[in-house]
């Protein structure tokens, strides 16, 4: 069985989980506490990060974007990066936007301050960091509004890895109850469309021990 | 004429410069002072970052990895991401290693502390940050040694975008005189092979006004 090493609140792991489901590929989840720096895991990925995907035949893949590109090449039943080079470039530009820019400015600081600090015994959340991340979030949600005024999905006419990457990050923050949906109607409408896809169901059923999600997290009518 | 908006010490811009030369594609360089947040540039890339590539026909591409993937798809005369999915996944894993991990841990802090602080009027370099980046650099150079003991080039038998990304970051640090080459013989030998490629010549001729490189920077026998 294909195995995905992940964390519950790693947007990069969630990106691969959604992509695998969109393609109808079976896999088993394995939680990896990367901060324990387990030797067997470092042998799979010397960067020490999730996600890591181990294919049926033992082939090991690391780094979320390398995994997604691989899956789109090897299982082309449903292409999620795009069909022509221009659309593929736009999809990849937006995937980088979420994974790098939104990650640094919003999702990484929020997940770290609100969850990881406690796990790692690094004191209380820093409210200034949380406040800045929330301010940044508004700018990114305005960008989703701008894009969806012009396009059906974030990168163009088709649902793509750009939507998957954005939903992966945003679903982590929604799990933490950090999004005031009424302030962001366009992002809400786009996310409602993503959330209703069968590929999102397993994520919406996530329930981290000791850290339950708010009630609206799994609700399609939120 | 194809135009690349860049900074001299942006590893991401250098990655695209080397790739374009490897493929024999002509282009014109245009320095973009991204910190000025010029409106016409933000219209090209709302993330406000270099590199941005404007193709002959006006098609705009942003985010270095999206640009490189596009060029490898549209100009396949010399494939630099690899031929089969497994090699392509390994190339992309290593590109992420350099662009994300090495970037965060080594090249971004060093370029910021040693160059950008002055340009931006943000005071003196923080020596603790520089010391930690130098310690991190050793770990990454040991990884190059480990890889090149087992492979001809970083991702396998062929020169690839993994070598280009690594050389892009390392050439920035070498421009700053931050690498003690005698401490890293395996990385030295690999970099000497990269440096001797014609695609590296334009970078080795770089000369930033007010910030000349050390003499060995352009020397193939360093």
UniProtKB/TrEMBL annotation, chains A, B:
Domain GST C-terminal: 84-220
Residue ranges annotated for the GST N-terminal domain, each copy included: 1-79
Gene3D superfamilies: 1.20.1050.10, Glutaredoxin
Highest taxon of the lineage: Bacteria
CDD domains attached to this UniProt entry: GST_C_family (cd00299), GST_N_family (cd00570)
Matches recorded under InterPro entries: Glutathione-S-Trfase_C-like, Glutathione-S-Trfase_C_sf, Glutathione_S-Trfase, Glutathione_S-Trfase_N, GST_C, Thioredoxin-like_sf
PANTHER family: GLUTATHIONE S-TRANSFERASE GSTA (PTHR44051:SF8), GLUTATHIONE S-TRANSFERASE-RELATED (PTHR44051)
Protein name: Glutathione S-transferase family protein
Organism: Ferrovibrio xuzhouensis
């Amino acid at each position: 069985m294909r195995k995905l090493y992940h964390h519950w609140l790693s947007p990069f792991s969630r990106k691969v989980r959604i992509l695998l489901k969109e393609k109808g590929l079976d896999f088993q989840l394995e939680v990896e506490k990367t901060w324990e720096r387990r030797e067997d895991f470092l042998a799979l990925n010397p960067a020490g990060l999730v996600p890591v995907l181990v294919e049926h035949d033992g082939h090991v893949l690391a780094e979320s974007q390398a995994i997604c590109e691989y899956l789109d090449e090897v299982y082309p039943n449903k292409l999620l990066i795009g069909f022509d080079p221009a659309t593929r470039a736009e999809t990849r530009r937006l995937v980088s936007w979420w994974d790098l820019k939104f990650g640094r400015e919003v999702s990484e600081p929020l997940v770290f301050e609100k969850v990881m600090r406690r796990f790692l015994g690094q004191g209380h959340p820093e409210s200034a960091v949380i406040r800045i991340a929330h301010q940044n979030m508004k700018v990114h949600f305005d960008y989703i509004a701008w894009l969806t005024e012009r396009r059906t999905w974030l990168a163009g006419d088709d649902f793509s890895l750009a939507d998957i990457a954005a939903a992966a990050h945003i679903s982590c923050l929604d799990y933490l109850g950090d999004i005031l949906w009424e302030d962001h109607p366009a992002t809400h409408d786009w996310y409602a469309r993503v959330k209703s896809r069968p590929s999102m169901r397993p994520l919406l059923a996530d329930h981290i021990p000791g850290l339950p999600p708010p009630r609206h997290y799994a609700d399609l009518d939120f």
